[in-house]
């Protein structure tokens, strides 16, 4: 049984190109393990950027045919998407090699460091990145295992979702969607928000309550989120954007000018005066993310002024309001938003940028889309201004045995019934042509979606056609 990262030396990842898997693979390589892996997206004689970047780190990459697993392999890691019928799983069992889930391995890694686990339905990747930047600026030399690539690390030629520092602190994302968040016993547990996404609210409340119980030092809560506030352990450790509650850390005076936001953060639990923050980002939700990161950093000894200095140069993360550019009076922005709250927040963040926002969304998974249908319609319709538009293409299907009993057009029909300017274009390749009569002289085209590995390429195609 694997309980520590000292229990193995040679580890193989099945599905190594996945965001969560590649992050752990890079981290383990960075701490001296022999790492290899395979992925169904690796094909002979076909370029693959993720594969190339992993190999540049010294991680051997194989086709998903079993050849990468040998007698030297002493641990095999699988993601939740990998089934027992996969050839490599069968081979690992034949060789009696231990097989563990990604979440179990991440828990073992977290036990080897002083860990800050960032939890919540929305904002985990951004907050983790901001916190990493703050701790790094403070000279603490942190490590990070993230669900998205940090632009600052991507610029080093890496995937960007992991980095090994020589300091004591490790920042990780704690995922509630598969329940793995309950596996961690972090020194600091951070709860950003609780919204219906992969699970019903009552299930999520139980999961996050266990997360709270597992946290050993500071459990930090966003008190301006009603459901998260219910799990507060100590207001002195909490943050809020509401002036009339008793959280110790507050953000106020929000302002957005173009692609820059500014606000103040105050720690009312001490005599420290407020610190002004300026970040090259958009949306009130990013003020909350920055407030969360600054709060945690302050609780472990980093002054708010240092956090403010660090975030002045924050460069963002991959596909989180990523600005592709402006062409023919249209700003093109690519975003990972994929649940109702994230889609609404993403649309609202773009509204100060232009008189009209045209949002396009590709839902993923028939089951999740059906589960969240009412919530999507409610949140998106509330976010849209009278002049804004929402467009959708057909649901992304990753394979499997899903029942295809819902279409994106069903959501569009519901949105139209609420008075929204809503449009369905089944094939996303027809999107730009369909949009041409809808563009104005002051316009943002916002692309939203997740899980589909071709979305980055789609954004590039849209840019070329604008």
Keywords:
single chain, 466 residues, alpha/beta, Rossmann fold, UDP-N-acetylmuramoyl-L-alanine:D-glutamate ligase, Protein-Tyrosine Phosphatase, Chain A, 3 domains, 6-stranded mixed sheet, 16 helices, 21 strands, 22% strand, globular, peptidoglycan synthesis, UDP-N-acetylmuramate--alanine ligase, cell shape, acid-amino acid ligase activity, ATP-binding
Written overview of the protein:
The chain is of the alpha/beta class. It folds into three domains: 5-100, NAD(P)-binding Rossmann-like Domain (Rossmann fold), CATH 3.40.50; 113-311, Mur-like, catalytic domain (UDP-N-acetylmuramoyl-L-alanine:D-glutamate ligase), CATH 3.40.1190; 322-465, Mur ligase, C-terminal domain (Protein-Tyrosine Phosphatase, Chain A, Alpha-Beta Complex), CATH 3.90.190. The chain contains 16 helices and 21 strands. It has a six-stranded mixed beta sheet, with helices on both faces. Helix 9 packs across helix 10 and helix 13 packs across helix 14 (408-417). The longest helix has 16 residues, at 284-299. The N and C termini lie far apart (54 Å). The relative contact order is 0.09. The model has no long low-confidence stretch (mean pLDDT 93).
